[in-house]
Records
---
Amino acid sequence: MFKTLYEDKVNYGVGGSLNYRGRSDFMVNLSANLPLTNMEGGIVPIANQKSIMLTISKSFNVPVLYKRNYHDMKVLLYHDINSNGLMDVEDTLIKKAMLTVKGLNLIE
C-alpha cells in the first residue's frame, strides 16, 4: 500500500526484487512493480505504471597499464671550501659517505 503526498487516496500494488550473485562477480537483478487500483476504485496515477527491470552485470579485473617514468639521479657530495653552493675546481669530493633520505640509504 502506498499514499502520495499530493493525493488523499490510498493506492496499493505488488512489487519485489530478486538478486543473484554468482561466481566471479556475475550479478543478475530482476525488479518488478505492479500497481493496482486505489481503494476508492479509481485508476492508478500514470506515475505508478507497471514496470519490470532486468540488470545483468559482470565485473572484470583488468589491470590498468601505464608507463612508468624512471629517472636517474647523480649526487656528488663535496666539501664546499668557499661556501658558494657550486662545485669548484678546488672543492674536494667526500668519499665513503652515506646519504639517507626518508630512511632509504642512497649512497654508501
---
Amino acid sequence: MPIVARDLRILFLTHYFPPEGNAPASRVHAFCRRWVRRETDRMAVTVITCAPNIPDGKVYDGYRNRISQREQVDGIDVIRVWTYLAPNAGTVRRILNFVSYMVSATISAVFIRRPDVVIATSPQFFCGWAGVFVAWIRWAPFILEIRDIWPESIVAVGAMKQGRLLRVLEWLELRMYAAANHIVTVGDGYRRELLAKGVPDGKLTVITNGIDKELLQPREPDPMLLARFNPDGRFVCSYIGTIGMAAGLDVVVRAATLLKARGRNDVRFLVVGDGATRESLAEQVREAGHDDMITVTGRQPKELVPGFLAISDCCLVHLRKTGLFETVLPSKIFEAAALERPIILGVKGFAEELVRGADCGICIEPEDELQLVDAIETLRRDPEMRRQMGERGRTSLVARYDIDRLSEDYARLVQDVRAAWLAGRG
C-alpha cells in the first residue's frame, strides 16, 4: 500500500487571538489560516489561547471564561482555556493573568494529540514558558516567537521598576531563549537585541509582520463612517491601534492645543482602538476642551479597520521616546501603506529607516507635538504629496512584506526545525 503523508501537526500557544484585534492576534491568525489551506505539505494547526477579553479583562459576548472551550476558526482548531482575568493595566494582576495562562495552556496541551512542532509567541514570556513546558512534556521541537523584548519593554513604559523581581524575570528570559530550538523575531532590531544577549546567530530567523492583501485593499471612504466620525469634512489624522502606555498619545492632546492656538479648526484627530490608557487619554481630551478636535472611538471591530483607514487623510504611527522602541517595526505601517495612506511616523530606528526608504511618510521626533503639527500642516496643504506617498507605500511595501510569501517562509522554517530535531534524535 502507498504511504500517505499526514499533515504536520502544529500547536501554537498565544495569549491573544481573534476576535481580539491587536497585532499579536492578527499575526497568529494570518499565518495559521494560510498554513491550514496549503495544498501541499499540509499543516493541521491547533491554537491554545484565552477567552477574548482585552483590554479591560471582560470576556467578549458569546464566550465564557471556562476551563476549556473549543471552536473552529478558518480551519484552525482553537482551544480557549481559563485564565485569571485582568485589565491591561498594572503589574501584579497582569502577571497573575499571564501565569494562569501558562498553567492552563500547559495542562490543556497534555490532553490533545501530540504535536510535531510547538510554537509560542510573546509579547509576554509566560506564554513562551508554556511553550518550553509543553515541548518538553510532549517531546517536540519548540519555536519561540519574539514580538517584544520582555521584561525590558515593561520597564521602558514605567510599568515595573528595577528590583529583585525584575532580575528573576531577566534570568527566566535567558533560560527561555536557551530552551528554544529556534527563535523567530518580527524585526532585525529584535534579532540584534537577542544577539547582544548571547543567542547564537544560527538560532535566529526574522519573519516580519506583513500586509494581508486579502483584507487590506485601497477603497473609497465609507459614507456612513464619514458621517459618524467626520461629518464636517475636516483633515483627518488617525491613530489606529492599541492605546497603551507605549503609544505616548498625550502628544495628540498637545498637538491639538497648538493647532487651536494657530486658529486651525480644520483638523480632526481620530484615535481608534482601546487599551490601558484609553480612559485617561479621553479624560485628558475632555479636560483640555478638545472634544471638537479629538475623537476617541473605543474598541472597534477588526473588520472596520480598513474603513477607518480609508476615511483618514494620514495615519499616525507613534511610540514613546525610548531606546528599546528603536527595535520595533509596528504593523500599523503596513496597514496604512496597504490602503495607500501617507504616514506620520514618531518611531526611531528600524521603523524610521523603512518609512524613509519607501518615501511613504514624514518622520518626526517621538513625543514632539510641534513636529507632529508641522507634518500635518505639510500633508494637509499638499494633496498630491499625500497621493504620491500613499502610492509609494503600497508599491514598495506590499511586495516586500506580502503576508502570503512570509507565511510560506515561516512554514518552511517550521518544517526545517522539525527535520533538524528528528535528525538530532537519530
---
Amino acid sequence: MLNRGLTSFGYNFLSFNSNPTKNSEEKENNYQVIKMDLTYYGYLPNVLYIKKGVPVKWIINVKQMSGCTNAIMIESLNIKRDLKYGENIIEFTPPIDAKEIKFSCWMRMVWGKFVINDERANSLNAKGK
C-alpha cells in the first residue's frame, strides 16, 4: 500500500505485477495495439512499452474486477473510463515529450505505466518470449 501511494508521486520501489513478457503489441491501421488483462491481482502486465508518436489502441481484457478497479484513468491525458467485463478499448496518442504515462484505478491504489521510447515497442514487449 505504501509503494502504491508513493507511485502517485513518481516513486516506484517495488513492482509486484510487472511482467513485460505478457504484453503484446501489434500493428493495426496505423495504431499500436497493446493488450493487458485485469484480474483480482491487478493489471497484467502493469508496465507496457509503446513507441513515441504512434497512436495507441489499448485493449483491456477484464476477467475480474472490484469496486476499486471498475474504472481506469490516465490523469495526465484526462482520460477516465468505466470498465465492463470483456474487452475495453481506449485510444490515445502519447505526447511527444513524455517518457512515461501512468495509469491507475479511480482510487489510485492499483497502478501501472506506459514506458515511451523511440525503439520498436514490439521488441521490448516480447522480451523473454
